[in-house]
Amino acid sequence: MSFRSEPFLWIHLAGLAVLPLFLELTWLGLAIAESLVPVWLELILLAIVGIVPIAWMQWQKPFDIFSLLFVALQPQQLTSQQRQILRLFKTRKHRVLTLFAVLAMGWALWKLAVFAPLAAPAAARLTQSRGLGLGLAIVGFLGSNLFLQVPISVLGVLLTSNGQFEVTEPLTPEEVSQSVTVLGFRVGNILPTVASNNL
């Protein structure tokens, strides 16, 4: 079976659909109340809190895509093909894509700040506290980065040639535990029907 048929790849690629919602939340947060400090200082704070943690994770220990919500497959349950996919998240191409996403989100943050006044009518319905606004913006921008970085990485895997994939050495179960970030509990099965019939 082609590695491109792996359902977890498509599940996480679909995360791009959530990106606009988090960007809108960031935009709304930036429009709440007047800034008490220079806008550029707020943007630096947002960039540090929103971009750096996700980019660092993807650069050092990429997100484990064999997970849903708060559960992830145990390394011993991963097939050889799945561990090959995880190996691709450790390549130079993956890091280039991570850097591209960082630049894209930096540009997006600047544009959201420039056009923040356009969101003022919607923001006027909320408590006019700059602290609340920054809190919403931080949550929104952190989510935006997560739901861009992970799908971009998945897209990089999907664009890998069949020949390159075939010569990719799978991570060992021990290397999986050391090489990827798990945001949740390890379990034996997540998609039992797919796992038993297709993998």
Automatic annotation (TrEMBL):
Superkingdom of this protein's organism: Bacteria
Residue stretches spanning the membrane: 7-33, 39-59, 96-120, 132-159
InterPro entries tied to this protein: LCTMP-like (IPR049610)
Keyword terms, alphabetized: Membrane, Transmembrane, Transmembrane helix
NCBIfam families: colliding_TM
Name assigned to this protein: Low-complexity tail membrane protein
